Each structure stands twice: as structure tokens, then as C-alpha cells.
Amino acid sequence: MCWIWTASGDWGVVAVAQDFRRVADQVAAEIAAGRLRPGDRLPTQRAFARSRRIANSTAIRVYGELVRRGLAVGEVGRGTFVRAAPPSPGHALAEEPAATGSPAARPTVNLELNYPVAEGQSQLMAQSLAGLLRPDVLEAATRPAAADGTPQAREAAASLLARGGWRPDAGQLLFAGNGRQAIAAAIASFVRPGGRLGVEALTYPLVKAVAERLGVSLVAIAADGDGLCPEALYAAHRSAPLSAVYVQPTLHNPTSVTMSEERRAELAQACAHLDIGAVEDTTWAFLAAEAPAPLAAHAPARTVLVDSLSKRLAPGLTTGFLVAPTDHTGLLADALRSGAWTAARFNLEAATRWITDGTVATVTAAKRADTAARHRLVQRHLGGFRIRTDLRAYYCWWELPASWRTDTFVAAAAARGIAITPGQAFAVPPHTAADAVRIGLASPPRDVLSYALETLAELAAQGPPGGP
């Protein structure tokens, strides 16, 4: 603190420049408490300085810090506005005081959440939504929507999901609020409570939670370097009948494996022979432009393909897509309605515009280029370790050095401000994951990702405290 002569003609106490973070923390707390809401205009820097009894130079640094944290945005000629509430601990970049209580700070980097954001995508999305703000258009867009959406939405979704020479019939399209709801509805349409669902031995953790909520038993099916093994599916069905199988044939999460055309045909044949359905999750497949045609192309009469806009665009304003066999659309629509999983009409209208005007294609191209840049960072920092990945994927599977146990490594990374996912989160009992972790590459800026990967590499090389 220091004494200066104030504008009022009195001596007053003001914070010196090094205390600007403390003032920024106070404003951040007001945003978190809802006293300042997204879109609120902050006072001018001079007025802010007077109200907080700080120097103008300190106010300038406070506003700069709020912008750096992503809590405010400055607009030339208009002022500074609240951008968003503070990120939740462990779910985004934040600034935390060092353990010593000094003003130094270190970043908390979340490599668990995995939502890619392309530069400029919000501006593109906003341009597409401008037409929805007309009162007549908005009135139509806020009416209820059926499970099969609108004709325009079905045509747009069919064009979006086409790949490898395959294009779904628009009449087979149904819609959910997001990809997770689409997965839940697809599973519910195939498997009754108490039934058995085959899944890859390492699978999307949400599927484990959905199955538990639906009363469905998961059966771990072995996979190899080409994906789920049809022979293992036969063996599991012989043990006790399966109702369906859930698979991620393209850029499997977490291993990044992509099934060959031959393996997809073999899996389709196995499903037909066993008379079971298939839920095909293609959420990340948009990153693999040259991937084979989906499983739905090989087994159209028994496969429900699910996808969404969450990864292509943004998780907060998204739509889930389902391509269903013709004689299964009724069951699937019933599952969507009973679970309250149908899409909002506004989201359908927004999605249709983003697809048809090229916004999705532009952002997709940017994200495909971004994965290549991020994998160069993986190679630079983790190239000497056992990493399983695909250069098109936004994640990698890291089999840790022998000296490390997964839980110990995850805890040590967290102590350094880096959140990673333990491999066991993906394992389906009785299968257990080796000492491994999944590294999400999508969410942090590239410079922060580089810092995090470098830190993890140094940690892995040092070994656990006290030795193995």
C-alpha cells in the first residue's frame, strides 16, 4: 500500500499496481455470485478507479486481467462488458494463488474435458443466427418440435452425416437435445431393463452411467488394434444373450483406433448372425475425412447411428442426430419422447442454418488442421513415451512408465495444476485398464497445452516420490 494525494484533495490509501489481481478477484467473485451478469457493462476505468479507491493505472490492469481470464470483453467505443461467470475449478483455465500465499499464480489446465473451439467460430455462428431474431422466424423457431424434427432439419442432417459413399435417407433421421441423449435413447430402444449390452472393454464413460440408470448390464468385449473383435462378441453372446452392442468404429475414445472396412463388414455380419442391434457412435468421426463408411452402411437394418454438433461446434447449443432403421424409428421415437430427450425447435433451426450455410464445414476444416498442430506438441513433449493415438484425434492414450501407478500419477499431475483422466474411468468390469491415462488435447490454448504436456513429461521422467 502507499499514500498519494487524491483528486478530492485528501490523502488516501490506494492499492499499488501489484495488488491489481486482488481487485480482479473481487470483481470475479461478484460475477460468480450473480451480482454482475453476462452482458452487464462495467463502469469506465476512471469511474471504477474512483469507486474502488485505486489508481487509474491499477484499474487498467484490473480490466486487462478480467479480459485475460475470459470474464470480460472490451468493445471499442462501447466499453467493457461481463463475458461469463468464472470457470469452475478443475474445468477450465483459472488462476490460483500459490500454496505459499504469494501473489504468484499458476494455471490449472483441464485435460479431462475435451471441447475443441476453432478461432472465430462464435462469430460465424452468430452470423447464421441473425435471421432467427426476426419476430416471425423466432415465433416459429420456439414452437415444440417432434422427434423427427422438420423436413429441412432432416435434409441438412442427412447431408452432414454422409461419408464414405454412404448417405442416410432423410426419412430415417430423428433428433435429440444432444449426443448423450441420443446415445441414451438408442440404448433404451434396443435393451430392456435387465438386458445386456456389449461394449468395447474400454468405452465412453457416459455409456457406463447411462446403462446404470437404465438398468442395463454392460458386457466388456475385447478389442485389438482394429477395434472390437467379432469373435469376442460371439463368445459373450454364447455366455448369455446380448440385446445390442455399442461401438465407436472411427477414432475410438480413448484409444483413437479406427476400424478397417473389413472389420466393419465382419462386425455387421456378426450382428446379423446373432440377431442383435448396434449403436454406432460417430461423434468424433467428423475429424477423419477419409474414414471408411460407417457400420450403418454395412448393417442398415439393425444399426442406430448417433452423432451431434457438440464437438463440431459447441456443447452448449447443440443437437443430437439419430439415423434409425426404417422399422425401428417408432421404437426410437418413443424412447426419445419418454426420456424427454427430443430436441428443442430453436436448436433444430440453428443447426439447420449452420449446416446449410457452410458454418459447420468451415469450423470442421479448422478443427482438422488444429488436431495436426496439437499432435506436433504431443510428439515434441511425449514422443519418448508409449502413446497410442491418431493424428486426427483430439486425445491420446498414455501407458505410463512402469514406475508409476495411475492414481499416483493423476494425483501428482493435479498437484501441479493439471487434470487428466485415469484409464480406469473407461474400463468396463471385469476388465481393468493398465496403468494409463487419457490426455484430452482440445480444450486449452496451444501454448497452455504445450506447458501442460511438458510438465507431465518431466513428471513421468522423474518418477513417483520416494521411488517405485
Strand content: 15-25%
Helix content: 25-40%
SS-derived structural category = alpha/beta
Q: How far is the N terminus from the C terminus?
A: 48 Å
> Which stretches are low in confidence, meaning pLDDT under 50 for 5 or more residues running?
1-18, 84-107
Oligomeric state of this protein: single chain
Outline the structure in words.
This protein has 468 residues and is of the alpha/beta class. 39% of the residues lie in helices and 17% in strands. It contains 16 helices and 21 strands. It has a seven-stranded mixed sheet, sandwiched between helices. The protein has a four-stranded antiparallel sheet with strand order 17-18-21-20, with helices on one face. α1 crosses α3. The longest helix has 24 residues. The N terminus is likely disordered.
